[in-house]
Amino acid sequence: MRALVILPTYNEIENLPRIVPQILEVDPDLEVLVVDDDSPDGTGKEADRMAEVNPRLSVIHRASKMGLGSAYITGFKYGIEKGFDYLFEMDADFSHDAKYLKDFLREIKEADLVVGSRYLQGVNVINWPMSRLLLSYFANVYTRIITGLPLRDATGGFKCYRREALEAIELDSVRSDGYSFQIEMSFKLWRKGFRLKEIPIIFYDRQRGESKMSKKIVREAVWMVWRLGLERLFGREDSAAGKPQGSSSLQRT
Ligand SMILES: Nc1nc2c(ncn2[C@@H]2O[C@H](COP(=O)(O)OP(=O)(O)OP(=O)(O)O)[C@@H](O)[C@H]2O)c(=O)[nH]1
Ligand SMILES: [Mg+2]
């Protein structure tokens, strides 16, 4: 078993040197890939320095800030090419606690996508302003109603994909970036009949570094959700590729 934790970074110089060792400590089969978008604060150079002395860390540099979704697509392609069995999405800002990686690794054995969920058992978000929490919570209600995607937390970004599931998606056709990137990826797998599983996580607001949340990300998600809902209604989804045996299902802990 080989698992790759993909960490997209933009100005995470205060977080990166602390988060990477925490991840690697969890399991000897874990490796980390940093996808840095030429962070002005030197995160990319720091990642290179760390990788020089750590064979379990790799770094991809991109020329400019191109967005979270495309950073993950770059990371997925790298991980598939290198033969990893499981590929993680994780934030580099300590919003996602590395201790949950163990839970993901256990659950992915029986699923194709494991989603870390803030809203599975009540509301597990620490330190967000009420306005942001409400936006996130109702974005999820809205997404569930319009797309039918059976997840309590469809916008979260702590996830583990089985390699075969990612291989079944036309990665270059995924266009969205922020919240909607998460929705679109899960939706595509659900529609193809892959097994989705949610596990509870506690989400912590970032303590260091600057937020990249923007109105553009919210607007993008509002439209994407409708696009997916309509695709589902009119059956435009390409269901030919990679459909696994067994029916579409969602398991809950
Ligand atoms: N490579 C790359 N990484 C990004 C980009 N935008 C955000 N990230 C990283 O993606 C992860 C999640 O982004 P955040 O900035 O935390 O976004 P957020 O979680 O919506 O907002 P806050 O937690 O409030 O800051 C972090 O590790 C960021 O450094 C980007 O354009 N390119
Ligand atoms: Mg964050």
Any chance you could write out the topology, listing elements then pairs?
Elements: E1 3-9, H1 16-26, E2 30-36, H2 43-52, E3 57-61, H3 68-81, E4 86-89, H4 101-107, E5 113-117, E6 125-126, H5 130-147, E7 159-162, H6 163-167, H7 179-191, E8 195-200, E9 203-204, H8 215-234, E10 249-252
The structure holds guanosine-5'-triphosphate and magnesium ion.
Key phrases:
single chain, 253 residues, alpha/beta, Spore Coat Polysaccharide Biosynthesis Protein SpsA, Chain A, eight-stranded mixed β-sheet, two-stranded parallel sheet, 39% helix, globular, binds magnesium ion
Structural class determined from secondary elements: alpha/beta
Task: Output the CATH topology.
Answer: Spore Coat Polysaccharide Biosynthesis Protein SpsA, Chain A
In the CATH hierarchy, what is the class? Alpha Beta
Give start-end ranges of low-pLDDT stretches: 239-243, 245-249
Number of helical regions? 8
What's the number of structural domains? 1
